[in-house]
Amino acid sequence: PPERKRFYQNVSISQGEGGYEINLDHRKLKTPQAKVFAVPSEALAIAVATEWDSQKDTIKFYTMHLTTLCNTALDNPTQRNKMQLIRAAVKFLETDTVCYRVEEPPALAELQKNEWDPIVAWAEKRYNVAIGSSTSILGPNIPASTKETFVSHLASYNMWALQGIEYVITQLKSLILSMGLIDRHITVEKAVLLSRLEEEYQIRRWGSVEWAHDYDLCELRARTAAGTLFVHLCSESSTVKHKLLQD
């Protein structure tokens, strides 16, 4: 949506029947489908409220990635259920960025091997699966057992977290990098760099378009970081957190 003049002074959160709500002055924030904007954790509500409070004279909706993810989780515009979300995420394995390798030029092939092999090896060990890589345009032949293992793993996440996981996968074009990031095995900066390995190689060789490269890189980092934070905040157990505070 286009930018809009800021129409509120204060942002606050409150607890309602559906979860934690965001208040713009005395009005409750609503989703695009006019539902009350209520999120499952207080930490997520604070993060979203911070996005709204950080807007200056105009509201730049395209900078509010957490708000967008919450709207998607609440409205579910594609009307998908949990298993459909999981299958869509696992399908990315068939075209995973780190599984597609080149043979030429040798320098890029070597770079892919050095940078991508370790994250593939980590995933194979972490989830006890076979993934591999291929220089064929058809990509590697991912075993059905590997896909089912990832289906089972993703099923442990709730619907909100799954929306975030799919968002991160879409940014990185890689299920493997996304799981490494969400599992805290790699940082956002590292995940983004690995997802853009060929592009970064070409930039180092031929140079970059002034400002455009840095803008794209910062935008991708921002979206990836927001998606990862969203997954973590939606996966927290408030029961465990309160118990720890009591203890």
Automatic annotation (TrEMBL):
<keyword id="KW-0809">Transit peptide</keyword>
<dbReference type="InterPro" id="IPR042272">
    <property type="entry name" value="ATP12_ATP_synth-F1-assembly_N"/>
</dbReference>
<dbReference type="InterPro" id="IPR023335">
    <property type="entry name" value="ATP12_ortho_dom_sf"/>
</dbReference>
<keyword id="KW-0143">Chaperone</keyword>
<dbReference type="Pfam" id="PF07542">
    <property type="entry name" value="ATP12"/>
</dbReference>
<comment type="subunit">
    <text>Interacts with ATP5F1B; involved in the assembly of the F1 component of the mitochondrial ATP synthase (ATPase). Interacts with FMC1.</text>
</comment>
<dbReference type="InterPro" id="IPR011419">
    <property type="entry name" value="ATP12_ATP_synth-F1-assembly"/>
</dbReference>
<dbReference type="GO" id="GO:0005743">
    <property type="term" value="C:mitochondrial inner membrane"/>
</dbReference>
<comment type="similarity">
    <text>Belongs to the ATP12 family.</text>
</comment>
<keyword id="KW-0496">Mitochondrion</keyword>
<dbReference type="GO" id="GO:0033615">
    <property type="term" value="P:mitochondrial proton-transporting ATP synthase complex assembly"/>
</dbReference>
<keyword id="KW-0472">Membrane</keyword>
<keyword id="KW-0999">Mitochondrion inner membrane</keyword>
<protein>
    <recommendedName>
        <fullName>ATP synthase mitochondrial F1 complex assembly factor 2</fullName>
    </recommendedName>
</protein>
<comment type="function">
    <text>Plays a role in the assembly of the F1 component of the mitochondrial ATP synthase (ATPase).</text>
</comment>
